[in-house]
Recover the amino acids of this structure.
């Protein structure tokens, strides 16, 4: 009777997978209006998309915006997290309070507040979005960094390096960072995938002035279903590659820790 417990899981899996599969098939179909199955298959929509300058620019902006925010966070936020966890653990409660606040503010309300405040300043709104993105991925970088530091006993590692004559900056760059790099890399990949799919903030704050892939997708929904499906297929493919990379790295890290 073991198969009975697989029945609900099968229905849930089909419920989630069928819309995605239908979208992917529609991206490769010549026409799909009057029959159960597509009338033909073609690469026309994918090729058209990659010949569209607006799509390439939107894709590049999404990558630039997401990667820029992640890189900025790794340079500025991760060292601060390391210092707090290793030397000032009593302040971790404030970091956790900030993380709770991040989940408490809906994107629409946050966008309205940011527009009210920064629209009258000289700060570019794109830079405002990058700053907000750095805050949004704080929970993932914090947890990834903390787990990595706990795995390698970061404080003991730093103390041992200093006993051997290394200063804190050298110990941080040459010993601590290489040791936590695998866990930090997984956290950055996860953060990038989250920011790459973000739509509410970038659409409400900047909109068509800085068209990202998500904004481009919404525009295509009103013009061509085939092209919109092709955009979704490329997005899903990229997310699948990132997810597979994260899973592979996580598996390797667990194997290394087990040894």
């Amino acid at each position: 009777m073991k198969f009975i417990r697989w029945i609900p899981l099968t229905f849930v899996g089909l419920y989630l997978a069928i819309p995605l599969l239908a979208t992917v098939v529609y991206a490769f179909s010549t026409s799909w209006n009057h029959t159960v199955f597509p009338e033909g298959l073609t690469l026309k929509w994918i090729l058209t998309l990659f010949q569209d300058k607006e799509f390439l620019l939107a894709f590049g902006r999404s990558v630039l915006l997401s990667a820029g925010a992640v890189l900025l966070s790794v340079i500025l936020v991760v060292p601060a997290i390391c210092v707090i966890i290793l030397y000032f653990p009593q302040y971790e409660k404030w970091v956790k309070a900030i993380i709770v606040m991040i989940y408490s503010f809906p994107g629409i309300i946050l966008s309205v507040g940011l527009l009210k405040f920064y629209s009258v300043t000289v700060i570019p709104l794109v830079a405002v979005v990058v700053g907000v993105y750095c805050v949004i991925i704080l929970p993932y970088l914090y947890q990834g960094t903390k787990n990595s530091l706990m795995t390698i006993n970061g404080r003991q590692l730093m103390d041992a390096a200093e006993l051997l004559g290394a200063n804190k900056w050298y110990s941080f760059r040459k010993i601590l960072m290489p040791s936590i790099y695998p866990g930090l890399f997984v956290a950055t990949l996860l953060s990038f995938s989250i920011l790459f799919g973000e739509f509410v903030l970038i659409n409400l704050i900047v909109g068509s002035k800085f068209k990202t892939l998500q904004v481009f997708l919404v525009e295509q929904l009103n013009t061509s279903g085939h092209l919109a499906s092709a955009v979704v297929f490329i997005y899903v493919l990229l997310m699948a590659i990132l997810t597979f990379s994260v899973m592979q790295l996580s598996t390797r890290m667990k194997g290394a820790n087990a040894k």
Q: What stands out?
A: The radius of gyration is 23 Å. The mean pLDDT is 84.
